[in-house]
Amino acid sequence: MIQPSLFLRRAILADAIFSGISAVLLTLGAGMLAPWLSLPEALLRETGLFLIAYAALVGWLGTRQTMPKALVAIVVAGNAAWTLASIALLFSGWVSPNLLGEIMVAAQAIAVGAFAELQYVGLRKSGGAVTA
């Protein structure tokens, strides 16, 4: 367990808020967004459903007085992996988004990458191990 810095706590909570907003929009609006972005409706909806669980976990983590360092590291690594996977998706040929879809995927990849970086910096600024 670590004593999280205020910087880390804010980066984690901001991630939870933006992930929660994305979760609602993608889950409930997949049918409307799919034709606008030329992305598969199922991909958008399933991403939204995943983000519901992710936002809940990260929101819970952000409210802890102490945080499991390994869990924070998993969140950072997961955000970095999400960023790389989003970019890879655009080059894979598995989907054929229009320009708006490409911009949306790229923008969220940049945002998630920024969260990974902020959380990593916050983790480095956090206090040492806490013994109970």
Instruction: Compute the number of structural domains.
Output: 1
Helix fraction by DSSP (H/I, runs of at least 4): over 70%
Q: How many strands, what sense, and barrel or not for the largest sheet?
A: none
Class of secondary structure makeup: mainly alpha
Order of helical and strand elements:
HHHH
End-to-end distance: 9 Å
Mean model confidence by pLDDT: 95
Cα shape: elongated
Please tell me how large the radius of gyration is. Answer: 16 Å
Percent strand equals under 5%
Q: Catalogue the unreliable spans.
A: none
Compute the number of helices: 4
Count of DSSP E strands? 0
Molecular structure report:
80% of the residues lie in helices and 0% in strands. The chain has 132 residues and is mainly alpha-helical. The chain is elongated.
Please outline the helices and strands.
Blueprint: H1 6-37, H2 41-62, H3 69-92, H4 99-125
Helix pairs in contact: 1-2, 1-4, 3-4
Quick structural gist:
The chain is an all-alpha fold and 132 residues long. The protein contains 4 helices and no strands.
Describe the structure using short key phrases:
132 residues, mainly alpha, 4 helices, transmembrane helix
